[in-house]
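User: Small ask, check this?
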Amino acid sequence: MRTIDRYLSGMLLRGYATVVVAIVVMLALENLPRLSKAFEHVSAPLPLLGASLLALLPEYLAIANPVAIYLATAWTIRS
C-alpha cells in the first residue's frame, strides 16, 4: 500500500471509530434511565442493566454505521 493510501485509511478509520463510539454512548445514555427504572426492584440491578445494554449493542451499531461512514468520509475529504 502506498503512503498516501495508508494515511487516508488511518484518517478514515479514526473518524469512523470516533463517531461509532460517540453514537453508541449517546444511545446507551438515552436508554439508561428507562432501564434503571425498570430494574430498580431487582436484587442485583447492575448485572442485569449491563446485560440489557450489551443486548442492545447490535441495534446501536446498526444505527451508528451509516452515520459514521458518512461523517468519517466527509471529515477525511475535508482535511
